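Posting here for the record, re: magnesium ion.
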Amino acid sequence: MNDKRDYDMLYNVFVMGDKYSGKSSLMKRITEDVFTDQYDQLEDKAKTVVHTGKKIKTRFWEDSPNTRRKDFGVPRNAHAIIYVVNLTDKEQFNNLSKSNDFADARRSGKPIIIVGTSSDRAAEREITDTEIREFAKEHGCKYIEASAKTGQNVDQVLVASVKEVMKASGYQLNALDRNNIKEMVDKIKKALSATNVPLIRDALLNKAKSEVAKMLQDNHNLHDPQIRKAYFDELKEQIGSDRSNVALGIVSSLMRDNERTILLTRTVRPMPEARQPEELVSEMIKLMKSAQCSSPNSKDAERELNSLIYDIHSNDSIDKLIKIAERYYNNHDANRAAQNVMERLFARQQDLKINLTVS
Ligand SMILES: Nc1nc2c(ncn2[C@@H]2O[C@H](COP(=O)(O)OP(=O)(O)OP(=O)(O)O)[C@@H](O)[C@H]2O)c(=O)[nH]1
Ligand SMILES: [Mg+2]
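Prediction output follows.
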């Protein structure tokens, strides 16, 4: 519990764009709500927002198009990209389709938000709304028009960055998750280094292993494949940076055992598909509606809905359920909830495919 971080999640947003496009000004407006005519070269700024009870720190970090090595591309630790274009400079729009920087941004596969800035200088505007919107759409990017001077839409830029990252990265580990992982690895490390006497060492290691196994078993979040994947990714990353770390390897393998147990218990539990699909979908939609309102019960509804969905084990029944949900989407006043239910069912389908290749 000695985690001194002042946030649950950290998102890095890499801010790119031509020289003089307005990168620093936009970042300054988002993070400090000021605008100056002062000219700064490189900026690194952060802002923390609270979203669904989690503190999300977004770190904006400005690219230097002139000095970045051309083969370097977008930094690996960037979660999303903001690409700034000054709306009063047609040249910057023309550059987009030719620029190596924009190509780098696309190649990275990370979400890109194109921001047209200086919207306040309407009289000098050289890029039309339609052409830049169409460009963004064609390249799968989000587009927002903003002004660092008046502050127009800058909050939307921040919100969009956070949303895009969340959408793209599935579950992000929070401080508690990281602490759990650290605690498990530390337990094994401690046992490994306690003594050189092999028999005692083995005994200590076995004890630590069973403690970690119990921790994994008690962590119900790990039933969620997205969270489990995030745990695995974190372990893999740590192993990658320190190959000699046996403890990390042991925790990974205990997690695999746990994963198998979860999959096995699932197959012996009574399946929800034993129920009528119609009834199941209508319940899912009801739960989704309660989960979306901010009543005290919305968390329970969310949990219940997740467990219903995670208890489905056959792609055939998912297909059937999606078809029924589609009817709700078309005919009822529940289309938003129905759409969300469909998205989750699709995700579950993907998930089942992955599980099949793991086991
Ligand atoms: N009117 C107006 N001026 C802006 C806006 N955004 C930036 N500027 C001005 O445009 C100029 C360039 O802005 P910067 O934010 O320094 O641009 P930059 O992309 O960081 O530039 P480099 O760091 O050199 O690549 C500055 O004089 C800003 O004051 C805006 O939204 N409206
Ligand atoms: Mg700058």
